[in-house]
Amino acid sequence: MQVGLPALVGNREPAIELTGWAGRAQRAQRNMVENLVLFAALVLVAAVAGKTNATTLLGAQLFFWARVAYAVVYVAGIPWLRTGVWFVSVIGMILIFAQLL
After folding, report:
1. Stated pTM of the model
2. Where are the alpha helices (DSSP H) in 1-101?
3. 6 preceded by cis ω (within 30°)?
4. Residue-wise pLDDT tens digits, 12-68
5. Residues 6 or more apart from 4 whose CB is under 8 A from it?
6. Which of 23, 63, 67, 99 is deepest in the core (most CB within 10 A)?
7. Which CB contacts under 8 angstroms, 24+ apart, belong to 8-11?
8. CA distance 46 to 85
9. Distances in Å between the alpha carbon of 41 and those of 21, 34, 48, 49, 65?
């Protein structure tokens, strides 16, 4: 709705900058992709190394649910809570990493 159909069917050059909740959703998605790469690497290494246990499960669950909450909080536009929820997802990755040591 912000951009219009002609811009969306074109080559999108220059890049389209969204504002409001659409822009926040786009930034939350980019942030998730960046964090998902590290999370996936940690989980794969833990699985291959045979280091999966209750702690790695807890770490994965913390990461997943914190990222779901992060998306909701980010789109809603709540800055300090967003940072806190992001930190919880990092704690989940730290729990998985700690099992690899």
Report:
1. 0.79
2. 5-9, 20-48, 54-76, 79-100
3. no
4. 666 667 777 788 888 888 889 999 999 999 999 999 999 999 999 999 999 999 999
5. none
6. 63
7. none
8. 24
9. 30, 12, 11, 12, 18
Per-residue tokens: 73: 């909080």
Q: Distance (Å, rounded) from C-alpha 88 to C-alpha 101? A: 21
Identity of residue 72: V
> Residue 15 gets which letter from DSSP?
P
CB 66 within 8 A of CB 16: no
Distance CA 60, CA 81 (A): 20
Strand, helix or coil at 51?
A: coil
Contacts 24+ apart (CB under 8 A), 72-81: 74/24, 74/25, 74/27, 74/28, 74/31, 75/21, 75/24, 75/25, 75/28, 77/21, 77/24
Tell me the average pLDDT across 88-95.
96
